[in-house]
Task: structure prediction
Amino acid sequence: MSADRTVHASRQTTGSGAATAIGPEYEHRHITWAFGLEFNNHQVTERWRFPRYFQSRLNADDLIIDPDDPNHWEYINHEQWVHFHITMTNRKDDFIAALEDPGRHVVYDGHARWGRGPCFGPDPAPGEDWQDSTPANRATRGIFPMGYTYLPVTTGEIEEHGYTPHLVTGAKPGRDDCHPDIRARYSRLRTYTLAQLGITVRGMDATDEVWGYSGYDEGRPAKHVILSAGWSGTPLSPADLGGVNMACRVFCHFGCSTFLHNYRILRFHKMWQREGDDKFAYWTTAASTTGTSQLWLYYLLTYNRRNDFDPWEPSIRYAVRKTNQRLASMNESYRII
Result:
């Protein structure tokens, strides 16, 4: 046993003062599993839903579930000598607190919202929670901005979810501040009236002109409009990436195409970069599907080497490799990177 591993006297039943043996003190690791408004634990099919997914795959004797508090559960891996504590939440303030918690492993499980960032709330019905939420609910609901200054969404996205978008009017947005999808079509940007786009936006007239382009969405023609989004100094600041003191040890964003949407923002704008065995970040390479976070957590929890009080990288790389192997076996086209 290495010098930084300690031992303790394990006792008999709770409250007993008699020590029965000298045993190892397992390392405690804390994971926050944050759900978005879309593709969350209540919307996925039963086979992917917690607790069923993990109850059918993990050793029941080592899985600790409090029936009165289903958003907190634990798993003890005796091969790793690690005791995992998992907290599930759909609140933005909980997510931000997790990002600022040193040593925590944070997973966001939900739609990438076209790169705007994780989005939270209890009810997926159309409304402002799909963007800034309302002043009364803004602390716990709505977007956590972590995207490019300007990014595209389809007009159908706005109409479907019924939020008030920050559309770009006036001067053409600067190319260097645009999402890669806009930069690739920069010469094709033009202005449209809201009437031409066939959308209504609260506080705007049908004759107002906004920037956009014609493109495709899921193989079908679609009008795209440019949103003013951003990651720092946004209307939601300090509840955006720029205002958060990132201190977590691992951050995973498993929405769609998050490597394209958010990788450069976190690593090169926020400058949250890898330091030794700290500041890990993982993304998806393309449109993702239900179950990515479940696979990731399963392989992380079941890594079969001892690594208590040791670097986390071997267990994390194992989770990356095994998750990607499983995605390949499922004929999925995206990977974790």
